[in-house]
Design a protein that fits this description.
This protein is an all-alpha fold. It has three helices and no strands. The chain folds into two domains: about 1-30; about 35-88.
Length: about 90
């Protein structure tokens, strides 16, 4: 009985995920060009920031990582920190 209920719950989760993915894909197709470009810009900025994080994790100096961030973010965001405001 427990296995049967677990199977039903897992099936429900799978169906919900498939429906969600289908709705997301359908919505993505209706986005206008400007929104798609904005999404691409956000992803590029996220990749640049991930690169900066990995740079810092590698032990490189902040100044080195900051220059790499600025180079990878050129034309994407405002300011020398690629659109991210620092508290320090």
């Amino acid at each position: 009985m427990k296995n049967h209920l677990l199977s039903i719950k897992l099936s429900s989760v799978v169906v919900a995920c498939l429906i969600s993915a289908t709705v997301s894909a359908a919505f993505a197709q209706t986005l206008d060009k400007e929104t798609k470009e904005d999404i691409a810009r956000h992803r590029a900025m996220a990749a640049a920031h991930e690169g900066a994080a990995k740079c810092l994790e590698s032990g490189k100096k902040d100044e080195v990582c900051e220059k790499e961030l600025q180079a990878s973010c050129k034309g994407l965001a405002v300011g020398k920190y690629c659109g991210m405001k620092h508290v320090h």
